[in-house]
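Researcher: I'm preparing a figure for a lab meeting and need a structural model of a single chain. I don't have an experimental structure, so a prediction will have to do for now. The sequence is pasted below. Please return the structure as tokens so I can convert it later.
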Amino acid sequence: MTVRRLEAPQLRSAADELADLLTDTVADGASIGFLAPLARTAAVDWWRERADAVAAGHLAVWAAPRDGRIIGTVSLAFPGKPNSRHRAELVKLMVHREARGEGLGRRLLTVAEDAAVAAGITLLHLDTETDSPAEHLYRSTGWTRAGVIPDYAASPDGVLRPTTLYYKRVGTGVDGRLGATDGPRR
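Model: Understood. Here is the structure written out token by token.
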């Protein structure tokens, strides 16, 4: 399965396809920051707004195309603070309902983890709805559960649900310290 990184112009061009994936994911009940029903125009706008963050190097987005449409995506968000350049947040891992169970989620996760290592990242973190299908993926790929926050976010149907925080150490650090100019190069 091909997974490709999207630069800002490519992200803008793919916003319609990414919006289809996003609306499908929300319609299926995944708690990824949106309430149902998610209007397609709002989903397109949301993806287009991400292009500036990609151009600035604050966000990296990968997409998995198949048969002329995007069926999966994952992103890494890089914090801008000097004391946090060693970490990134894994965000918006989505797989279209029609492509689930084929290993695409695991493939997208591996791509993001490998890219994080290549960028000098040594710590990844994420949050996901507690007891969601995504939790199995993270646990089975070596992510460590850090804790649960009750009533953290509303599910697409508006019900407050707990969120589980996970982290994963990736890459290697020299001594666990960042110097004044050290940190990942993006």
